[in-house]
């Protein structure tokens, strides 16, 4: 499924995650895969704990970080697509 600003997403609950000094580390219980996120990725992971539209996620990130809307949209969508490819997201049907 292709993600866009209208997509509603949340993180996959099949992961164990922990915050270590501002960075999130996660492990897939199902696959045993390990993932690490930088501080911005960690903040996105926090914000998608509950269902949120990508448009609202981008708006929240723009309030917290000094970034243009176009950069925020492209970077966020690229990151979310990477998470989706690794089956770390749940995407609600439109």
Automatic annotation (TrEMBL):
Source organism superkingdom: Bacteria
Name listed for the protein in its UniProt record: Coenzyme PQQ synthesis protein D (PqqD)
